[in-house]
Amino acid sequence: MKKIISIILIVALVAAFTVTASAKGTVFSDVDESAWYYKDVTALASAGIIGGYSDGTFRPNGTVTNGEALKLILLASGYTAQSKTDSHWASGYRDLAVMHGIMTSADIELDAPITRLDVANLAANALGLRTATIKSPFIDTDDNAATVLFENGIITGSETSAGIVFNGADSLKRSEISAIIYRIINTNFDAHTGSEQPDAVAAANDSMTHILVSCSGYLNIRSGPSTDTDIVGRIYAGRTAELVSDASGWYKVNYGSVSGYVSADYCTPVDYAVEEPDYSGLRLDIVEYAKKFAGVSYVYGGASPSGFDCSGFVMYVMKNFGYDLGHSARAQYSSGTPISKSELKPGDLVFFSNSSTTWIGHVGIYIGDGLFIHASSGSAYCVTISELSSSWYTSHYIDACRIIND
After folding, report:
1. Residue range(s) occupied by CATH 3.90.1720.10 in the chain
2. CATH number 3.30.300.30 given to 200-273
3. Is 64 within 8 Å of 19 (Cβ atoms)?
4. How far is 354 from 358, CA to CA, in rounded Å?
5. For the stretch 352-366, what's the b/e string if a residue is b when 16 or more beta carbons lie within 10 angstroms of its beta carbon?
6. In angstroms, rounded to a whole number, what is the distance separating the alpha carbons of residues 265 and 136?
7. CB–CB of 303/309 below 8 Å?
8. What integer pLDDT is reported at residue 398 of this predicted model?
9. Which fold has domain 281-402?
10. Whole-prediction pTM value?
11. H-helix segments, 203-309
């Protein structure tokens, strides 16, 4: 949680709920640790992104207004803070949304409660998530915005005996907007466009040194080697950038068309040999699909975009391609053919112990170049990309197996 909060602190958000903010770090009296939204609310409150009431409550079932939702979503999506353009405090955010086509009309009652469907469309437009590539998982709507947000792990809906419902006409709750904002901040896509940032690995050089972003969420690129300098770009979790030089705790990098500095605390230098992929379209598809969930939170027992544990993540990804695996690392190992580390291809599974013992306790998907993607319960506490050659994974590596029969 400390890692997650430290990344959220980078985000220049100001509390948008128009109430008196509680002290940072305060545990709200009406937000129990067992509540599904506990992590989202407490992390955002600790970062000063949302606030509670002067009586120490958060009122998670309270409604969210159009103005409040506009401000939170626009800021979380990478837009800058706006001054009011008329008498209403949120008028600047309304006008910004209209100018960028996030809203089609300025005719909106800013103090009225926003519905779940309206906030889905607002968030999808702000993030540039235009077209879903899956069928709607909801039994009560086939709305594209709701579907594309589900696909990207931003919303989850509610489980019922009949299936997943979205309840789009219901007013959005304060607990729900907290979860949405937390997931936007910690999801691996480029705000404003919805597309992944260009990966420097694709450069024409035969060999280059890169930095691999290992934090949860994203890392700011700054104009100089200091947090006092301007933010000129972002690198999302699991992405790489070309390493130009090392400057005393800061790396100078090139990332697409952006050049600047990133803190060395949240990334690792790696060497990549750039080669044409020697694996099939299926293996490539599995890797690219798995990467879509980088930054999704680790949840013990989780097996959906709202939260994964290690085997739940592998099970979810592989099921999308027709492979039914059990929800345990050891069961997944038994489902494949053991292979040596030298035989690894993208899409193969890698297994580790989670202690000094020799039994299997952790699993990930190999993605090539000595890297694997997994739901980590370590410091990242999310789906992240790690190096097989790092000391911890080298000492805990057990074996690999092949599920895909080429």
Report:
1. 281-402
2. no
3. no
4. 9
5. bbeeeeeebbbbbbb
6. 39
7. yes
8. 92
9. endopeptidase fold (from Nostoc punctiforme) (3.90.1720)
10. 0.47
11. 281-291
